[in-house]
Amino acid sequence: MKNLRIATFNVNGLRARLPNLLAWLEREKPDVVCLQELKSVDSAFPAAELEAAGYGAIWQGQSSWNGVAILARDAQPLESRRGLPGDEADTQSRYIEAAVHGVLVGCLYLPNGNPQPGPKFDYKLAWFERLISYAQALQASDHPVVLAGDYNVVPTDMDIYNTRSWLKDALLQPESRECYQRLLDQGWTDSLRHLYPEDRLYTFWDYFRQHWQKNSGLRIDHLLLNPALSPYLHEAGVDAWVRNEPHASDHAPTWIRLSSRKRR
């Protein structure tokens, strides 16, 4: 294992936020990046701009919605899967996977699920079940694996500024939280919570009611590590400065740093 900085970032529209993304890449220089909500077709992906910034990429776009990508600094990701197994009728672009710098990286954008109850929430839970089934073999692998992305789940009340106005939201429903916990129970390590068990850390601040200015945030972007990778976890954090930039996404990049040596 070599020293690596792996990040996940819901860009909320790649073309609209490309200057923000490039500025962040230049300043923080992550080795691997999982992007969500590209909101553009494959042909509109800015591969040339990212290559000029030093990043190879694979992506799965979708017009106006969804879309995921994996970027690698000074390397080209080797794609191993696009789309979760279990539902051939599902055409939404929400999962892509690649070998990058010695790590198997799964990049995911889990369905939001609102409004609930209803078909969108049913789809969220069905997609989550497919993820849980697929993740079992990844968790048990001897190869280092990270599942990173926007999970659209607030795991506990500690991961939100206040539950009062969110009680009916799909992100906080018991079913959503139970799915996330079942995923962790396979043996995955929730990186940020593992290193900061008592801290209120947020990765998302919506555009309403000055939630960014008041730090009224949610933690919904997660990097889960399998047992082969978790001993190398050294640092984790949120590049909150990106959320304060002009025309920012409502998410901030969330990252981990892996050390070449196991943590004692």
From TrEMBL:
The keyword Acetylation does not apply. The record marks D221 as: Important for catalytic activity. Residues 7-251 form the Endonuclease/exonuclease/phosphatase domain. The record marks H251 as: Interaction with DNA substrate. Mg(2+) binds at N10, E37, D150, N152, D250, H251. PROSITE patterns: AP_NUCLEASE_F1_1, AP_NUCLEASE_F1_4. The record marks N152 as: Transition state stabilizer. GO terms for biological process: DNA repair. The active site is at Y109, D150, H251. This is Exodeoxyribonuclease III. The lineage of its organism: Bacteria, Pseudomonadati, Pseudomonadota, Gammaproteobacteria, Pseudomonadales.
